[in-house]
Amino acid sequence: MDKEEKMGVEDQLEMVAKAFVNHYYHLFDTNRAALAPLYHHTSMLSFEGQKIQGAEEIGQKLAQLPFEHCRHFISTIDSQPSPFGGGILVFVSGNLQLQGEEHQLKFSQMFQLIPTQHGSFFVQNDMFRLNYG
Amino acid sequence: MDPDALAKAFVEHYYRTFDTSRPGLGNLYQEGSMLTFEGAKTQGAQAIVAKLTSLPFQQCQHNVSTVDCQPSGPAGGMLVFVSGSLQLAGEQHPLKFSQMFHLMPTPQGSFYVLNDIFRLNYA
Lengths: 133, 123
Known about the structure:
Chain B: Residues 6-120 form the NTF2 domain. The complex is a heterodimer. By secondary structure, chain A is α+β, with helices and mostly antiparallel strands.
């Protein structure tokens, strides 16, 4: 693959990562119940240190978080290919506004996205941390 | 050794090397390794070490707050997600950072860093 083609692949990857991130947080902020289909039965979530496995359990965990509404504000999105799995590693940082709270919380999150047969991606790995002051 | 203990041990080793002898980080990367440092992309152990050793400070100290890890797939890789603070020599206030590593096993039974993404977390 010559340099130009290679750059094209990387840019494509970045576009996929950005599109995924925007889609993910849009769903999270408007319809958390719709997140479960983004995971498979092998998926893993670490949420503030708590480990959860499988789309169903992950969906339940996210739906049961103790707030009705929140809004994610994304500051940075970085991505790299995950060569051995054919996946994409995505690293996000930003702020989270919980309804009724005065101050925004800072967070970081990483995903490993794996391609599906149908040309989209699912979340195989997901780790979320608030970044306290 | 259980994966969480492995991840913690790796993270301690990585930051101790970073904080005391940055050139030593070369052993932790290989030719296919990728680093994204504050948005700047670098590939390959040599270029990565050159980038890390040319960062504009002499000394720093990493203080790790959280380490999370998960297996990345059938090849035996591990995803490690770190948050903490970074004190640069001469600076009054520590900086907050997050970093993710994708570690792959070596034939010798240790790990190298295949993917590395670093971000400061500004206020």
